[in-house]
Specification:
Layout lengths: L1 H5 L1 H16 L4 H11 L5 H13 L4 H6 L1 H8 L19 H30 L2 H14 L2 H18 L4 H25 L5 H31 L4 H14 L33 E3 L2 E3 L1 H10 L3 E6 L4 E4 L24 H16 L4 E8 L2 E11 L5 E10 L1 H4 L11
Antiparallel strand pairs: 1-2, 3-4, 3-7, 5-6, 6-7
Helix pairs in contact: 2-3, 2-4, 4-11, 7-8, 7-11, 8-10, 9-10, 9-12, 10-11
């Protein structure tokens, strides 16, 4: 039996069976003894391979997402610690070190603030406790930056190594937590919310936050630490400021000791043509073209005909975060799982020529954001890719009357 247990393929097969048993209705307590008997330890990488195997076998990402909480309960206490001669994640400023410090603060918000305030409100029903909870959830919303760094900085590198299923599952759960926080704030702001519903929703949301902390610490971080190179961690550290941090602001920037100096950084890459670029109506130097595009009062992103992000402008006031790590990433991986099918339909319609553009408009805090997708074609009508143009149109909507040069 021992030789079977040591067989990697056999162990993955058993793991897959256990997950399927859970999916088919067995309880965690029924499955856990078999798991503990047959598996003495499992690495984060094997968990990743197992989830990908389920998807390759046809299980939808959404179904694995539904099992996510059960996964954590089964694996808790069984994941072996991955011993490393050095622990870069303990270095101040390392991306994982920052993620972990943020998790400590998020854990405090949930356990030291939300849970006690929720219990107090449950017993008293006083508006005072609702106000405390509203403050707590406003603070907890900072979690959006923590999740955004995961999704836009970590996930692209995971995809580069073929780890695609866990990011999709985790992004879906991130969005569930985001939606639950928003819903909690709406319920707390309403005078007509049912107390029982409010307590149940916020309590469930708080538990999900804690469960996600466990998943990150026990599965995600060990997996990426054993996969990504120091050069890649350096790029993640460089791009983190673009998105921002959750409560914890790093005091120093992490500089890896063994960064590959033979690998030229993107910033050092010289343009192939240092002369003029010829356009349909004029000539510009690369410097002029780059500066001009960055001066436009809109954000532009270009995705090529194969679906890879190739370029985005870097204006002073961006609407959506665009870390450089998304360059080369497939566009469907840049969106939450719940909206991927919409993105794929847009790409399909623009590529096929069914539409030349598709427009959306959404409210984002004080901004009224107009998002437009255009099919980009050459003179022969060949599809080259898709250009996304994003703009805050609220200031434009407020314009009235006239302002002429002569009135200056």
């Amino acid at each position: 039996m021992s030789e079977m247990i040591n067989n990697r393929e056999y162990r993955q097969k058993i793991l897959k069976e256990l997950i399927m048993e859970l999916h088919n209705g067995k309880g965690v307590d029924e499955v856990k003894p078999r798991f503990e008997k047959l598996i003495s330890g499992i690495s984060a990488k094997e968990i990743s391979e197992m989830e990908q195997a389920l998807i390759m076998d046809g299980m939808p990402v959404e179904q694995i997402q539904e099992l996510c909480d059960v996964h954590a309960a089964v694996f808790k206490g069984s994941i072996e610690e991955i011993h490393r001669p050095q622990k870069p994640e303990e270095a101040e400023g390392h991306p994982v070190n920052i993620f972990k410090l943020e998790n400590i603060e998020l854990d405090k918000i949930v356990k030291d603030r939300i849970k006690p305030h929720l219990e107090s409100y449950k017993n008293s029903g006083k508006d005072e406790d609702k106000n405390y909870l509203l403050e707590d959830l406003s603070l907890l919303w900072e979690i959006d930056k923590h999740y955004s760094r995961k999704e836009n900085l970590l996930f692209p590198f995971m995809e580069k190594y073929g780890i695609t299923a866990p990011p999709k599952v985790m992004w879906g759960v991130d969005d569930e937590i985001r939606d639950a926080i928003k819903e909690g704030r709406v319920l707390l702001s309403s005078d007509t919310s049912d107390k029982g519903t409010l307590v149940e929703k916020i309590d469930g949301m708080a538990d999900k936050v804690i469960e996600m902390i466990f998943k990150e610490e026990s599965i995600l971080f060990p997996m990426v630490l054993e996969t990504l190179s120091e050069d890649e961690w350096a790029k993640i550290a460089q791009e983190s400021d673009e998105i921002g941090y959750t409560i914890v602001k790093p005091k120093t920037r992490w500089i890896p000791e063994n960064i590959n100096k033979d690998d030229p950084a993107e910033d050092n890459v010289q343009p192939l043509n240092d002369g003029y670029i010829k356009f349909d109506a004029g000539l510009l130097t690369p410097e002029q073209a780059n500066a001009m595009l960055n001066t436009l009062p809109v954000d532009i992103t270009f995705v090529d005909k194969n679906g890879a992000v190739k370029y985005f402008t870097q204006g002073k006031e961006r609407i959506f975060s665009r870390p450089k790590t998304i360059i080369g990433r497939q566009v469907e991986n840049c969106h939450p799982p719940a909206s991927v099918h919409i993105v794929e339909k847009i790409v399909e319609d623009l590529k096929a020529g069914i539409k030349d553009n598709e427009d959306f408009w959404i409210k984002m805090g004080e901004k009224y954001v107009y998002i437009r997708y255009f099919a980009v074609r050459n003179e022969q009508g060949e599809f080259l890719g898709i250009m996304e143009v994003t703009q805050d149109i609220k200031p434009i909507q407020s314009i009235s009357g006239e302002k002429r040069l002569i009135s200056q």
